[in-house]
Each structure stands twice: as structure tokens, then as C-alpha cells.
Amino acid sequence: MKIAVVGCGAMGSVYAGRLASAGHDVLVVDRWADHMAAIAANGLLVAGPDGELRVPVRAYTEPPSERVDLVVLAVKAADVASATAQARPLLGPGTVVLTIQNGLGSADVAAAELGADRLAVGVASGFGASVRRAGEVHHNAMRAMRFGGYATLGPSEVERVARAWRLGGFDAEAVSDIAAMQWEKLICNVAYSAPCALTGLTVGEVMDDEHLGPVSRAAAEEAWQVARARGVGISVTDPIEFVRDFGARMPAAKPSALLDHEAGRVSEIAFINGAVPREAAKAGRDAPVNATLTALVRAREASWTA
């Protein structure tokens, strides 16, 4: 496939590098000029548990007027609106747009701007990616990628996308209920995103802390209860066991919200912990644990943008 990755931070770079290594024609678009220059000059280096690969990838700070088969929106949730504007020159009549963000809500933005019928939604689990320097990224693991149609995108088109990712070595599958997958990831994310961002602790440290552990588990259980109240078909029966198993697999990991805070950036917390009270309200419920955690993170971030 001819693929454009819009947003070439840590995760976008991992996606682009692995897809290019499979022989796909990949271009990346990001406004980080040094990163794009390094990729253009030396290729994109992706390091992980299975070693290193360096692949040639076309890199741009502004998108070329070039139609592609697949656009991957790999930006932060808060940047999806601006990324859709960048993506427009890349769209042809048959272009599929795949949006992959943490939390809930960003797919609605992409659908409104680029069309619901061409949109697929992705869920990425267990990567732990970070940028080492311009042109080089690292990931700790690579558990799974799951894709589903947002509206009327047919199963065959979603499967075509999944097949392209499998060629890049991803554990990628097309699923019929992407909402359940999003919520199952969200349950894990809310357990660790805000607590880690607020304290600077890793996933394992939060999980085992006598004070923060109960808060983390309460956030997860609250999200699980809201998902059930909203009628989402999640397979999780014990949210506490679920998030402890998740944390035990990557105890040294820093969630993206903590990495954002370490870099002085505003996080995606409004789409992660903040999604739970929004969804709870639709079911006539409250979500005080996640609402409080969201407020604490956003109050901290407000001081950086004041």
C-alpha cells in the first residue's frame, strides 16, 4: 500500500518504520523539522526488543499533493483537528483514514472533518514508545493492534488495512466491535495515566504503592462500571485483576501522560480519565474518581499555558 503517517512522534515513527520495512511506500508528515530532516537524510531508525532497523522513509513538514491508499493519524488526541487539515491533500476517493489515539472522542473529530464512511479506528496496546533523538525511536514491546470501521467502512477494507500492518510484523486484526476494544484499553489507561502524571511514578510503582494503588484501582473500576452502564460489550469481568495484569507486564513503563509532563507538554488526559465522566453523564451517572484525577492534572497543566 501507499501509506502516509501524519504525526511522526514516538508511536507514529514506530508505525512508519515497521510499515516501510514491509515494503509499503511510506511517507511521514510532521512539523518537527529536525526529526523530518534526520529521517530524510539518514532514514528512520526503530529500535525495540527484536533489534534495530533503519529504513528509508520520505519525510515532509507539510504534506505533498499526493494521493495515498491509507492515511494514519498518529497525533495526540488534542491535535486530531489540525491533523485532519494536513491530511486533506493526501486523500483520494478510495483513501482510508485510520485514526489511532488514546482515550475516547478523537475519532468523532476525524469523522466530522474527513468523512465517517472512510474512517477506521485503531487501538494500540503495549508499545511503550519514546523518541531517543531526531530520526531515532525506541519501543519496549508491541502487543497488539486492533482495527474496526467507524461507520460504514466495510469489513473487507478494514481487513485490507490489518493485512498491511501484519506484513510489518504487527499483531494486527480487524474486529467487529472496536468500541469494546477502546474501552478495555481505556480501563487500563485511566488506572495509570493520571496517577503517574501527578506523581512521576512508573506503572509498577503506582500499582504497588499503598496510597496510590487504591486510587488507581478505583479509577479502573469506575471506568468498567461506566462501560457496562453504556452497554459496551467489554469482555472484562474483573477490572482490578485486568489492570494489575496489564501493569505487571510493563512495570517500568511511563504512560504517555507522564512523558508529556516530563517534557512540559499538555497531556491527553481530557480524552483518557476525562472521557469517563463524560460517558458516565450519558448514562445518568457520575464518575467522581476520574473527574477528580482529570481536574488535578488539568490544574497542573494550566500553570504551563497561563
UniProtKB/TrEMBL annotation:
Quote the InterPro entries the UniProt record gives: 6-PGluconate_DH-like_C_sf (IPR008927), 6PGD_dom2 (IPR013328), ApbA (IPR003710), KPA_reductase (IPR013752), KPR-Related (IPR051402), KPR_N (IPR013332), NAD(P)-bd_dom_sf (IPR036291)
| Species per Swiss-Prot/TrEMBL record | Actinomadura chibensis
Give the pathway listed in the UniProt entry for this protein: Cofactor biosynthesis; (R)-pantothenate biosynthesis; (R)-pantoate from 3-methyl-2-oxobutanoate: step 2/2
- What's its top-level EC category? oxidoreductase
The protein's job, in short, is: Catalyzes the NADPH-dependent reduction of ketopantoate into pantoic acid.
- NCBIfam families per UniProt: apbA_panE
Give the Enzyme Commission number: 1.1.1.169
Pinpoint the Ketopantoate reductase N-terminal domain residues. Answer: 3-149
As its record notes, the protein acts as a catalyst of:
(R)-pantoate + NADP(+) = 2-dehydropantoate + NADPH + H(+)
Q: Which GO biological process entries does UniProt record here?
A: pantothenate biosynthetic process
Protein known as = 2-dehydropantoate 2-reductase
Alphabetized PANTHER family for the sequence: 2-DEHYDROPANTOATE 2-REDUCTASE (PTHR21708:SF26), PROBABLE 2-DEHYDROPANTOATE 2-REDUCTASE (PTHR21708)
GO CC terms in record: cytoplasm
Query: What keywords sit in the KW lines?
Result: NADP, Oxidoreductase, Pantothenate biosynthesis
Hey, which family's this protein in?
A: Belongs to the ketopantoate reductase family.
Could you give a GO molecular-function term held by this entry? 2-dehydropantoate 2-reductase activity
Q: Which residues form the Ketopantoate reductase C-terminal domain?
A: 177-301
